């Protein structure tokens, strides 16, 4: 099952119109009990340097699929997550059908969070 991820972290280099163009993301929150204890560790601030250094993690085929399949969301990264207290965590892989990463003004990973976190 492919998780559909949406993200409000506008300053992240991977964010394209509220979707995440990374092939894979790492969500952190080892001892998390609430959403605010989690963060997207793959966040990288928009800018020329990060645009190049993060190119290898870009989900190019997903992005192209989205261009061709208008209105259908095909761009979804694999989510590796260490928030073991979350009910959606299955051996450090997220199995939620939809994930929302939040951080409208975030300028670093610590200011982002997984809003979908639900305590076990
Ligand atoms: S903050 Fe994380 S989920 Fe959001 S676009 Fe960046 S890498 Fe993707
Ligand atoms: S929903 Fe849970 S398992 Fe999935 S990324 Fe968020 S915190 Fe991790």
TrEMBL record:
Limits of the DUF1540 domain: 6-43, 79-117
Protein's name according to its UniProt entry: DUF1540 domain-containing protein
Native source organism of the sequence: Clostridium aestuarii
């Amino acid at each position: 099952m492919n998780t559909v991820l949406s993200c409000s972290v506008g300053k992240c280099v991977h964010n394209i119109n509220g979707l995440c163009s990374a092939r894979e993301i790492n969500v952190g929150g080892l001892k998390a009990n609430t959403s605010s204890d989690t963060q997207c560790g793959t966040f990288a601030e928009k800018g020329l340097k990060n645009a190049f250094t993060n190119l290898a993690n870009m989900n190019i085929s997903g992005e192209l699929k989205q261009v061709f399949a208008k209105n259908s969301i095909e761009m979804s990264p694999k989510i590796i997550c260490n928030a073991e207290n979350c009910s959606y965590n299955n051996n450090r892989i997220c199995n939620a059908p939809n994930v929302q990463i939040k951080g409208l003004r975030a300028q670093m990973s610590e200011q982002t969070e997984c809003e979908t976190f639900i305590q076990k």
